[in-house]
TrEMBL record:
Chief location of this protein within or outside the cell: membrane
UniProt-recorded name of the protein: Lipoprotein signal peptidase
Matching HAMAP family: LspA
Composition skew (Basic and acidic residues), residue ranges: 183-193
GO molecular function (one): aspartic-type endopeptidase activity
Entry superkingdom: Bacteria
Catalytic activity: Release of signal peptides from bacterial membrane prolipoproteins. Hydrolyzes -Xaa-Yaa-Zaa-|-(S,diacylglyceryl)Cys-, in which Xaa is hydrophobic (preferably Leu), and Yaa (Ala or Ser) and Zaa (Gly or Ala) have small, neutral side chains
Pathway in which the depicted protein is active: Protein modification; lipoprotein biosynthesis (signal peptide cleavage)
EC class (word): hydrolase
Entry similarity comment: Belongs to the peptidase A8 family.
Ranges of compositional bias, category Polar residues: 162-180
Gene that this polypeptide is encoded by: lspA
Function: This protein specifically catalyzes the removal of signal peptides from prolipoproteins.
Keyword terms of this UniProt record: Aspartyl protease, Cell membrane, Hydrolase, Membrane, Protease, Transmembrane, Transmembrane helix
Amino acid sequence: MKPAAKSVPIVVGAVGAVTVLIDQLTKWWALSTLTPNAEPIEILGRFLGLRLVLNPGAALSLGASSTWIMTSLAVAITVAVIAYSRRVTSRRWAWALGFILGGAVGNLIDRFFRAPGFGQGHVVDFIDYQVFVGNVADIALVGAAVYVVWLNLTGVPPHAQTPRQSVSSAPLPASSTSQADPRPGRPSDEDVR
């Protein structure tokens, strides 16, 4: 394994850990400063504000009555990212996977340890975009998804690729007495002998 490839799990873990730390610190701040379901505090007019919402579902409160499904999905994403990151050799992909891991774990902590109970906890959302209310973990997840699309569109592979020669670019064996005629169907000097 190349040195860059060895560092990929470290990058994924470090980016994920920092994302979780920032997410949980900002949620702690929101819980200690903001009042649940109060009028939003405007930051950029009506477009961006602060409003504390304890969300049982996903974005736009989708799946509010299916908290266990959201929890199971977050666990599956976490396990998949950890498993996949062991095969990735690209540091760019490591950053993307780290943000996905951090976002999933940040919201998973809420699902496991916040009221009303284990696996059914409500996620602390406080960044009000007018269309929905989110948090730092959501920003990490959406940003990472956009970055993954960009990596794919620009052709950045998650794994180191070994160069392969195509059949047409492989060197032809040289004849000991003469070169083969490049025209198809024409016998070479060796065929005539």
